[in-house]
Amino acid sequence: MNIRPILLIAAAGLMLGITGCDTSKYGQVEQGRVVAFDAEKRVITVVHDSAMDPAHPVYDVMPAAVFNLPTDPAEVGPLPKAGQRLKLDVDKKEIEIYDAPKQNLAYIPINIVETQQQIDKNHPLVYDAKEKKAKSFPIIDTEKNTITVYSGRQKLLCTFSVPTGYENYPPSTWDTGDEVRIYFKTEGQALRFMNISKTDIYKK
Fold first, then answer.
1. Which of 13, 56, 100, 116 is deepest in the core (most CB within 10 A)?
2. In this structure, is residue 156 part of a structural domain?
């Protein structure tokens, strides 16, 4: 049994001070993917994970939630990376994105060119050992009209093409945003912010 996801949820809950069920007293928690981040205004937009399952997240709650980051710097974890890709389904040949102009979810059929399975985060295809850092994705090939993305959760490297009309969408459309957890009492104002994607609960 892989206990890491369980420990991660537990640690996130402790960090956010979730100690009871009375939301009027203890507040509420929002968890999901960051699809937009205004660094100057310190405002994030999050699509909620209705499943709350690290292995099988379901980002499907609309409208997206908008929050101001906490005013207290001590309550803010690493700032998030935004990305609009919410799910890549190679079996259905479909990609789910947050369509920012329409402020809604879009399920786009894709033509898969190549997939490579069991690609972990240290694989040479996605990690530059010499530079000691992950390679940058998505990779957009304008000559071949293809997009290559990497999913660390799925251990999947996938190259695909998209229907006409989507080829000029910004690169962030095909990238995933950070998974975050927000504790709040007033809608729109975060009291505590945890970047799950960039938090190592084992680091001392």
1. 100
2. yes
Closest Cα to residue 46, out of 32, 57, 29? 32
Tokens found for residue 56 = 């099988």
Helix (H, G, I), strand (E, B) or coil at 194: strand
The C-alpha angle 32, 34, 37, rounded to 5 degrees, equals 150
* Residue 41 included in any domain: yes
Structural domain boundaries, residue 152: 85-174
CA pair distance 181, 68, nearest whole angstrom: 13
Query: Model-level pTM?
Result: 0.83
On whether both 112 and 167 belong to a single domain, the answer is yes
Flag whether pLDDT at 4 surpasses 90: no
Could you tell me the CATH number of the domain that includes residue 32? 2.40.50.320
With CA atoms as reference, report the closest residue to 113 among 144, 86, 137, 83: 144
Residue 162 predicted with pLDDT over 70: yes
Are 196 and 171 in contact, with CB atoms under 8 Å apart?
no
Q: Which helix (H) or strand (E) holds 9?
A: helix 4-15
